[in-house]
Amino acid sequence: MDTTLSIRELLFTLLLKVGVASSIAALLARWNTFRRVLFTEERDADQKLKLMLFMTPPLIVGVTLRLVSPYYRFADLSLEGAFLMGLLGGRVVGPIGGAIITIPALMAHEWLGMPAAATAGLLGGLIRQVIPDKEALWNFGPFTFLNIPKALMRMIRDTEIMWEMLPLLTCVGLELGRVALVEATKPKWLFALDPQWNWQLALVVIATLMSVASPLKIWNNTRIEMNLERHQQLLLRARMDALSSQINPHFLFNTLNTVSALIRIDPDSARGVVLKLSNILRRLLRKHETFVPLREELSFIDDYLDIEVARFGHDNLDIVKEIDEVTLETFIPSMLLQPMVENSLKHGLAPKLEGGRILLRTTSNGGRLHIEIADNGVGISEEKMPHVYVEGIGLSNVRERLRVLYGEDFQLDIESHEGQGTTIRIDVPELAPAIPEVSVF
């Protein structure tokens, strides 16, 4: 069988070869397990095994297709695949993976196929071992060869090595070595796409480079996306921790002053206030919780309000709760109610000389949870409302957390009339008890 190709056939075959390599890389990048292997730069034995299990099957299929029909020459990526496994998995994964993917070639009496692929894998593993910063491997791209003049200037001027040049030079050496072996031995002992020493060999070498660099670039983009996602989740966690942990420091000072006053006249009440304050502080330390059952949130509010009742006096603060039993197991954002209750106390009831009342109502309708907190305080004028409810700790906290957790699928309405009081209404999706936590990747 003639092993030479016309220039048109060669260009088409090389294009298909790079396309197959990129397609396999893109397909593997869709598997979460493989993505996690890529994301972990220092891989243990289990992750290296997973790397081989993912990469070897499609490469074995490619070698088999090439053996079945000459029309599938482009599908054989044994040398490139073994080199990639060595770059990612190390000097053990590369040779073993290279040997595995060339088993069909060995069965077809291509005796040099397995040693050549194992050598390519070993070289990839050695390069991984030699490069001090493993991130440099991911800088190897399809057009890295255009940086050769820049790399030479940097080496001469700054004695600094561009390490991504090492995989490039190795790919060139592997392809040239393959052609040399094919010419030095019987052609059937080793496969080469176009085993000729002419200008067409430059095209073959470039295709080999791109067949290695394109998967690396695709997987590097996947790593970057995962890294951005991880940092976004960490940022979200930090924001949620900061927002859920915000509690007015004046509340702590006022509580301690209340305890100080009660110790002399009513030690039992002072002890009760301290216990409830400890419950509140213990809850603030539970940063891992993004959602909690409404029942638990109401228990927290009870402790908070009991302290406020101790401050204001039983005759000056009346708490009314109208809670639909169906809503008690519904999950809501942790520390959602406290800022709103604090606003009612601080801006509504505190300025009143006579007693005041806070109403807390929850209902469920059509898969939505409705929360209403109303007070009969002094109310807020239309001019002052934006300053009171948007700036600082308060409803800006609530609004921001709802936006982070629900996107646009929530409502937060405030209605206030001077001298009559203020009502805050929240409408959010009704979440089932099995709601997952916002987790870090």
Task: Note down, in words, how this protein is organized.
It contains 16 helices and 7 strands. It is of the alpha+beta class and 441 residues long. It has a 5-stranded mixed beta sheet, with helices on one face. It has a two-stranded antiparallel sheet with strand order 1-3. The protein starts with 6 loop residues before the first helix and ends in a 12-residue tail after the last strand. The chain has helices spanning 7-28, 32-39, 45-68, 78-89, 93-101, 103-107, 113-130, 148-158, 165-184, 200-244, 249-265, 267-284, 294-312, 337-349, 385-390, 395-406, and strands at 291-293, 317-323, 331-333, 356-365, 368-375, 411-417, 421-429. The protein has 2 domains: 7-237, no CATH class; 248-429, Heat Shock Protein 90. It is 59% helix and 11% strand. Mean pLDDT is 81; it is low at 434-441. The longest helix is centred in the middle third of the chain and has 45 residues, at 200-244.
